Amino acid sequence: AEVRRVSSVQGVGVPAGTVRLLYNENPLGPSPLALKAASEALDGCNRYPMATVFSLLEGICALHGLSLASPGSAADLGALFEAFEASSVLLGAGSSEILQAVALAWGLDGGEFVEASPGYGAVGSAAQSMLGERVRRVAVPLTPEYRHDVEAMAGAVTPRTRVVVITNPNNPTGTALTLAEITRLADRLDPKTLLVVDEAYIDFAESPGVMSAMGLAASRPNVLVTRTFSKIHGLAGLRLGYAVASQPVRERLRPYLLNMLGVNTAVVAAAAASLADADYLMRSRQVAVAARTQLLAKLPEFGLKPVPGDAPFVWAKVQGDCGPLVQKLARADVLIAGGQRWQLPGYVRISTGLPAEMDMLFATLGAKA
Ligand code: PLP
């Protein structure tokens, strides 16, 4: 019965009772205020979304201390576009769309993309699938502590490097860099090389010195920081992400992003409401941190070696190949990610879930095969 209750937030198309710990989704469901705002916004979906986008933009700029010009009248679409373009913000259908646009805008003339391995790899893989042999992916192994090797990444930069990507906290390992480490990397890059800092999971970070690089995006010409409403805000199915960058970076991306015209009224209204729902955001963080703490403490009891991290998921080394373990859990409808997704079959990545879902996970781990 407990699991059925949990399944009410599983979403469309997921069988009741499935414990879904494999895509780093928010197990709480969205903020009730976000849902209410989205349904109210649907009522006005015969209108273009610009005025709604502008209220979201105000929320994003306030959150990061970015300036935003007043557009005057919300009915004047030209003024809204102008004020949007003067802001430091870019919008996408998920941060994925922005990462893909970066791949195209910086890869079109060829060059190298430097990323950590194992890592999220979205920019390099998008560049490769769109541009083929014109681009080269440079995969820099993590340190033995599973962190980005900042020194090695800086050392991998050549005159052909177009983009260096830091995913902070990293996916799949959950480890995070301090802002000081990211700043040191930024200091070493030629201003023509773009530093992308993907902060999909930054809201879940607690380690000392791990902080957003938004300040760098606002103050340097070659840093772009991405955020998403898919994780801490629980809106993955509605698709919305944003980035902050300097005017030259935004100009270079402009041909490849629809921005205000590429997002829909429902998600924009939901996102604005969610940003203002401090209580929901606190609960999202608490659920993830509690489950993470539990995973770090308990996985060793089952022979797994978890990696301490700052994300709403945990990367863990298993004994031998992860296949039998992943399958045993799957037979009990507990789904986790096997490391072969990253060509590392000796590992698993387990997303954080609700307390009842974590209980199911541990009960199944402890059960006989
Ligand atoms: N960046 C990282 C590190 C992710 O793990 C994900 C999704 O899992 C994304 C970006 C893409 O998220 P979205 O397109 O939903 O914003």
Query: Can you tell me the CATH architecture of the largest domain?
Result: 3-Layer(aba) Sandwich
Tally of individual helices: 14
The tally of strands reads: 12
Unreliable residue stretches: 1-8
Global mean pLDDT: 95
Distance between the termini: 23 Å
Give the helices and strands as they follow along the chain: HEHHHEHEHEHEHEHEEHHHEEHEEH
CATH class label of the largest domain: Alpha Beta
What is the overall shape?
A: globular
Strand percentage lies at: 15-25%
How big is the Rg? Answer: 21 Å
CATH topology of the largest domain: Aspartate Aminotransferase, domain 2
Which strand order do you get reading across the main beta sheet?
2-8-7-6-5-3-4
Describe the sheet with the most strands: 7 strands, mixed
CATH superfamily of the largest domain: Type I PLP-dependent aspartate aminotransferase-like (Major domain)
Helix content: 25-40%
Which class best fits the helix and strand makeup? alpha/beta
Unique ligands: pyridoxal-5'-phosphate
* Tally of structural domains: 2
GO molecular function, one term: transaminase activity
Keywords: Aminotransferase, Pyridoxal phosphate, Transferase
InterPro entries: Aminotransferase_I/II_large, HistidinolP_aminotransfase, PyrdxlP-dep_Trfase, PyrdxlP-dep_Trfase_major, PyrdxlP-dep_Trfase_small
Pfam family, one: Aminotran_1_2
